[in-house]
Amino acid sequence: MLQISLYNPANISEKDLVENFVIRKEEFDSIFKDILADDMKSPPQHYLIQAQRGSGKTTLLLRLYYEVKRNEKLNKWLIPIIFNEEEYGVSTIYRLWEKIAEYLEDEEELEEFEGIYDEMDKKSSSKNYEEECYLILKRYLDNSGRKLVIFIDNFGDILSKLSEQEERRFREVLMTDANIRIIGASSVVLENTYRYDKPFFEFFKIRNLSGLNTEEMIDFLLQLGESCKCKEKIENMINNDFARIESLRILTDGVPRTVALLFEIFIDDESGNSFKNLEMLLDRVTPLYKHRMDDLPTKQQEIVNIVALNWDAIGTKEIAEKIRGESKLVSAQLQQLEKNKIIEKKSLGKNNLYQIKERFFNIWYLMRYGRKKERNRVRWLVQFFELWYDKNDFKNRMEKHNEALKNNRFDRTTTLFMAEALYFVKHEDDEIERLKNEMIKLSELCINEEDKKYLKKLSNSPDKKKIDDEGKINSFIEYANNGDYKKAIEIGLLIKNKESGIDNVLGVLYEIQGKLEEAEEYYKKAIEEGDIEANFNLGNLCYKQEKLEEAESYYKEAIDVGIEKTNFNLGFLYNSQGKVEEAEACYKRAIEKGNIEAYNNLGLLCDDQARLKEAEEYYKKAIEEGIKEAYNNLGNLYNKQARLKEAEEYYKKAIEEGDKEANFNLGLLYDNQGKLEEAEEYYKKAIEKGIKEANFNLGLLYNNQDKVEEAEYYYKKAIGEEDKKANFNLASLYDEQGKLEEAEEYYKKAIEEGIKEAYNSLAWFYYTNKQNREEALDLSRKAVSSIKSIYTIHTFAMILLWNDEIEEAIEMSKEFMTNEEVFEEFPQDIMDFLLMLMAKGQYNYLSKLFEENKFNIKDRYKPIYYALVYLKNDKDEYMKIGEELKETVEDIVNRINKMELDYK
After folding, report:
1. How far apart (Å, rounded) are the C-alpha atoms in residues 355 and 363?
2. Do 163 and 131 form a contact (C-beta atoms < 8 A)?
3. β-pairing, 47-50 with 78-82?
4. Rg (CA), the chain
5. Residue whose C-alpha is closest to residue 505's, from 347, 317, 354
6. Are 296 and 342 in contact (CB under 8 A)?
7. What are residue 563's phi and psi, to 5 degrees?
8. Deepest in the core among 255, 266, 681, 702, taking most CB within 10 A?
């Protein structure tokens, strides 16, 4: 027997565990290095180790615990505590503090903690008992100068028993207390740590334990070989039969406990009776795998059952049909199973397929729960042999099996199962085929007449052809998943079983590669073969190519053959064409056929048409059906209607449901209301969630508050996220600061990025800084042709005067000099133009303008009028000036003289 404890590493002595610790060294070194480097003068980083059962979490915690105890630098001030793997009694925070107190009192050398539990117990009647317990623990730790590192296995079990209020309290303690560090472990990914609305969201530093890599596998096997005194045999396999080791790693997905359980059959493969050996082995792995299943919620157990019994990768839609559930809900559960490393995803473009990640777990499930009439008991054995033996090994296995048959060493049941399983194993070789035929003849000696008839049919069995095709399909999926589309297509073209839907998937692969003609060809082949899904895919392909009539045709064919989800896509197509009535009808049919996402799209359609009451109803219906996107859309609808409290409510609900965009929209809502702190908070959250446009808005918010450094930082960040308009705002910011080189650089970048407003701004920048007169004229001309507004027209007129294009400038100025609103809203711009006319000596035109302008500009701009009179040397008119204006007029004349020099 192996000298290892498969299910309870705590039973191994400290000496043996430390000496035999050959895997998870990298994780150990990383975590222990952090422990060693942190004197915990401030609240420390807490860890959570996540991995499925049997991956070495408990052993890693124990190794860390022992090392802290043994380390002379640490054990003077740091007390390690390790909880038992199953702490059933800890269901509240106060019980956690009590448990820590019990551990501290049980350690004889920790005399300073004597009486701590009794002191807690005396406060048991207090309304604030948990807080009292914590304060007592904190006081003892502070007085002793000691700190705690607490190793908690199955940490998720403890968290799951706490109320949300207790979780928040626990998080508050861990965030503020420098005396306690938690290093927990969990066999499932805890939603408390990845859901935004949970107290421990992104709180722990997560370390995920993956399956052993090849190097770790060798170290582990050598250690096991040492334990059972067969190290020489292991070394021989490493040197001469390395493929067998890789087979073991593939079968177990590198899970250490499964590797250890398979170890005996790995080294003892002489008897030839694999069926009985595997039967015994399956009994041994049952506790591990049953725990793995028991850890899962009921709905996930149902999904694992479907995937495991299927063996080959299976799609979401098929799973949903088998459990009579909605694909969307099944997808959410599959994502969770993926996180927990129970299931792995194989992607083929738009199609995702799922299978059990650890293949021996799948074999165990087939053997224990597969229905006999589905022949799963044979199938799991076939798959085991294919994973376990290469061609030469398989020849040896066949020879041993035939020898055992000659000696009558099998009973009827074993003979039948082994004959069927070995016959279906795929190894194309004449010698193997000869051995298989010999096996059939020898097996007939051990079984009854009915079984003999069955064995004679094996050579022509359609199951064998099916298994051959399944192997090709698995290889096809594997190559495609690794991005080797060329090889995948080569294999796909060899698959004979057209019922497999391979031509449709080939179409998907060609489409992924951008080979749209080939994709269309294979979608059409699939349609001819009766693969109704291909109509839908071909419709999507045509839509992508903007072949809208053909897309419509294929969508309609898909609907005719029962692909009901197509109603949604056809509705989307009609909507994009502005065919509102047809789109609405399709969305409603989609709803009738169970596509609840169409409620949201109907809401958007009505929203766009300003049918706001209907839009609101559809969004609310979508929300009732669990369509999370509808919360944000309803928030937008209320925002549009100025129903701000309701908009805020639904944006917050959208955020709770994980809608990243809603953070940005809520920030914008607060920004528009002048709630700047709240706007800043949600813009930052949006940025954390990857909403790139929030960088620009946050930069603008800071800009408006004159927080120049912050504005510059976020504008630059927006530019880094390819937000083109941020170049313009950053240029304006630099312009206002007088950073002329930087301003010019970013105005030019804005122009390069197609920001039309930047033409006018750079032209005005050159004007105000008296630079690049001709370039400024070219820019302002482009500005007017791109955006005709008071701003661009005024800039153009000013720069025309600068370039002595007087007639064109006067003609252009009529756009604003004949508009009374401009005089009311932009008096400074009018004044600048009048001064520039005088600087260019246009006294006669100005005199006429002051006399004839119907907006009475002589009174509006009286000091400028008298400056003109002064420059014309009209002494009689100038005598009329009041004394109060003389100083102002002198200032204006001086300014005009300077402009004449600056803009000559």
Report:
1. 12
2. no
3. unpaired
4. 39
5. 347
6. yes
7. -85, 85
8. 255
pLDDT at 497 over 70: no
Q: Provide φ and ψ at 295, rounded to 5°.
A: -70, -20
**How far out from the chain centre does Cα 370 lie?**
35
**In angstroms, how far is the first alpha carbon of the chain from the final one?**
102
415 in Cβ contact with 443 (< 8 Å): yes
Which is it for the CA torsion 365, 371, 377, 380, positive or negative? negative
Kindly state the average pLDDT of the residues 126-131: 90
- What H or E segment, with its residue span, contains residue 150? strand 147-152
Q: Token match 């057209």: residue?
A: 498
Q: Which residue has the higher pLDDT, 778 or 278?
A: 778
pLDDT tens digit string along 676-732?
Answer: 999 999 999 999 988 999 999 999 999 999 999 999 999 999 999 888 899 999 999
HEC states along 632-648?
HHHHHHHHHCCCHHHHH
In angstroms, how far is CA 3 from the centroid of its own chain?
A: 43
- DSSP SS3 for 313: coil
Picking from 248, 495, 491, the residue whose alpha carbon sits closest to that of residue 390 is 248
* Pairwise CA distance, residues 429 & 416, whole Å: 23
CA distances from 815 to 630, 741, 877 (A): 47, 33, 30
830-860 pLDDT per residue, tens: 999 999 999 999 999 999 998 887 788 888 8
pLDDT at 581 over 60: yes
Q: Is-contact 455 447, C-beta < 8 A?
A: yes
In this predicted model, what pLDDT tens digit does every residue of 250-269 receive, in sequence order?
667 777 777 776 666 556 54
Alpha-helix residue ranges (DSSP H) falling in 185-273: 191-194, 214-227, 231-240, 242-252, 256-267
The Cβ of residue 736 has, within 10 Å, a number of other Cβ atoms equal to 12
Residue with tokens 């399944």: 470
Classify burial at 646, counting beta carbons within 10 Å of its beta carbon; exposed 0-12, middle 13-18, buried 19 or more.
Answer: middle
147-152 and 78-82 beta bridge pairing? parallel
Structural tokens at position 339:
């996180």
∠ CA(788), CA(792), CA(795), 5° rounding?
150
Q: What percent of the chain has pLDDT over 70?
A: 81
Q: How far apart are CA 885 and CA 778, in angstroms?
A: 39
Residue 445 has pLDDT above 90, yes or no: no
Residue with the bigger pLDDT between 492 and 779: it is 779
Sign for the pseudo-dihedral over CA of 31, 34, 38, 42: negative
Q: What is the DSSP letter of 322?
A: H
C-beta of residue 858 within 8 angstroms of C-beta of residue 851:
yes
Residue 207 bridge partners (DSSP): 49
Element (H, E) at 737: helix 725-737
Alpha helices (runs of H) in 529-659, residue ranges in sequence order: 533-544, 548-560, 566-576, 580-592, 597-608, 612-624, 629-640, 644-656
Q: How far apart are CA 342 and CA 292, in angstroms?
A: 9
Sheet holding 314-315, edge to edge: 314-315, 351-356, 343-348
What's the pLDDT score for residue 108?
Answer: 76
Strand, coil or helix: what is 208?
Answer: strand
Q: At 671, which amino acid appears?
A: D
pLDDT digits (tens, 9 = 90+) for 333-354: 888 888 777 888 876 555 678 8
Beta-strand pair 205-208/180-186: unpaired
SS3 464: helix
CA gap 674, 693 in Å, rounded: 19
Supply 79's token pair.
């007390």
**649 class by beta-carbon count within 10 Å (0-12 exposed, 13-18 middle, 19+ buried):** middle
pLDDT over 80 (residue 89): no
Q: pTM higher than 0.85 for the full model?
A: no
CA within 13 Å, CB half, 227: 22
Distance CA 107, CA 149 (A): 15
